Each structure stands twice: as structure tokens, then as C-alpha cells.
Amino acid sequence: MAVRACGLIIYRRLQSAASSKVTDGIEYLLLQTSYGTHHWTPPKGHVDPGEDDLQTAFRETQEEAGLQASQLTLVEGYKKELHYPVRGKPKTVTYWLAEVKDCNTEIKLSEEHQAFRWLKLEDACKFAEYEDMQATLKEAHEFLCSR
After folding, report:
1. In the chain, N or C: fewer CB atoms in 10 Å?
2. pTM
3. For 28, left (φ over 0), alpha (ψ -120 to 50), or beta?
4. Nearest in space to 115 (alpha carbons), one of 44, 46, 65
């Protein structure tokens, strides 16, 4: 059976008058793991028994980044599933897109992560080394730009 995990691609919009395009001010939150290769990823984690996928995404975001569901706005119409092997077993990760209501909200990391960064799309893709994560960030960005 496949391992299931869920998370949120968190973004914020920087209020800058100098920026003419709405999408110029979008930054994505990536967390650096304190284990393994110290890769960068949006907050995500395994589904607990009795939890639905979206509950998992919000719980993991609270645990890993200190962001409460009340501090986020879930973006309707965006959901992405990634499939890849981990230690020889299939894994499915489902992501939703959520905006931080206040772009100055403090991030509080758990011991699972050692650093966080708010990054524009291009830099977020450089930090997220995996191609499927880079493609997901680009797809999420295009989704936001098309709204």
C-alpha cells in the first residue's frame, strides 16, 4: 500500500506599489529539513488514522511552520497529487494552495526543519531540487496568475 502524505503550498503577496504585475509580489514558503539531505519542501506529512487529507495538510502546516488554519486562506480549485518512490515504496503526496492572510505572519519551525525561506518562483524552484516539486510550484504559480 502506498504511503500517503498531504501538505499546503503556502504563498504570500508582498504589497509593493512599485510592482506592476500582481504575480511579481508572490513568494512561496519552503522549509529545510533537519534530516537526510536537508532538502527544501512545503510543509507536509503523513495522514493520521481518522484524519481526512485536508485536515492532515492543515495539521502538518501548524506543526511544521506554526501557521494556524485561521491564518490561511485555502485557494479554491487547486489540488495536486505527486507520486514517487521512497525507500522502494510508492508514496502519494497531495498538495493544496493556501495564502497567508498577513504577509508578516511569524513562521515557527518544529524540530523537523532547520530553516525556512520565502522565495519568488524562480528561487523556490532552485531550492526545491526535485523536478516534480519544481513543476508543481510552476503550475501553482500559473494557476494564481490565471485568476
Report:
1. N
2. 0.92
3. beta
4. 65
Task: Enter the C-alpha cell of residue 51.
Answer: 484524519
Burial class, 85, CB count within 10 angstroms (exposed 0-12 / middle 13-18 / buried 19+)? exposed
Structural domain for 44, as ranges: 3-15+22-146
* Tens of pLDDT, residues 28-76: 999 999 988 889 999 999 999 999 999 999 999 999 999 999 999 999 9
CB 45 within 8 A of CB 33: no
Measured CA to CA in angstroms, residue 98 lies from 29, 70, 73 at distances of 10, 11, 5
The helix/strand/coil state of 107 is coil
38: Cβ contacts below 8 Å, ≥ 6 apart: 32, 114
CATH at 48: 3.90.79.10
Q: Distance between terminal CA atoms of the chain?
A: 37
**Number of folded domains that form the chain:** 1
